[in-house]
């Protein structure tokens, strides 16, 4: 199957299975989603959702976050990991939003990625969820699936994003990013992909799957 044909097969198959494209992170405005997404680096969404209610009660806006005591912010976000760096990023990006954007979270990739702690993935989350702008959210799950499907030969997120941008129309970007993420979490997992339960299996080249299966088998044999 040609790559372009495979891409549309993937879209048409997964889109009905994962219709809810809302972020799993709790938020009520762009600033809160920006904060939550920064905190989600190297942390689960579930953990972030446990932390943000208390954080947003104290600092619900960039105005208040910009004036926050760093030690207090660190204590509130401690369990998300890398709390020193994340607290520094939250204070700095809040000040930048006030100084450079009139207190409003910007709505372009270029402006968002100028903020401390904000890369293309975080910016894409904001653009798609808050401003309904075409954006491809590429995380570890998306990169893994794209490699297995043969869409890319690398897991580099920038290269994966570029490959997906060529395979899909802009009006499909938000949906395909969400679908690949959810499918990677639920079915096409890193260690034990559930190929027999996967609706893509009949056309999937399964790049690298045999290597994973062999490694797991070898480990099981050593345990015995």
What descriptive keywords fit this protein?
12 helices; elongated; mainly alpha; single chain; Endonuclease III, domain 1; 224 residues
Put the structure in a nutshell.
The chain is mainly alpha-helical and 224 residues long.
Query: Based on DSSP secondary structure assignment, what is the total number of beta strands?
Result: 0
* Average predicted confidence as pLDDT: 94
Count of DSSP-assigned helices: 12
Shape: elongated
SSE run: HHHHHHHHHHHH
- What's the story with the biggest beta sheet? none
CATH architecture identity of the largest domain: Orthogonal Bundle
What is the alpha-carbon Rg in Å?
19 Å
| Beta-strand percent range | under 5%
Whole-number total of structural domains: 2
> What is the terminal-to-terminal distance?
41 Å
Give the CATH class of the largest domain: Mainly Alpha
Helicity, in percent? Answer: 55-70%
CATH topology of the largest domain: Endonuclease Iii, domain 2
Structural class: mainly alpha
Uncertain regions spanning at least 5 consecutive residues: none
CATH homologous superfamily classification of the largest domain: Helix-hairpin-Helix base-excision DNA repair enzymes (C-terminal)
GO molecular function: 4 iron, 4 sulfur cluster binding; class I DNA-(apurinic or apyrimidinic site) endonuclease activity; DNA binding; DNA N-glycosylase activity; metal ion binding
Enzyme class: lyase
Keywords: 4Fe-4S, DNA damage, DNA repair, DNA-binding, Endonuclease, Glycosidase, Hydrolase, Iron, Iron-sulfur, Lyase, Metal-binding, Nuclease
Domain HhH-GPD: 39-186
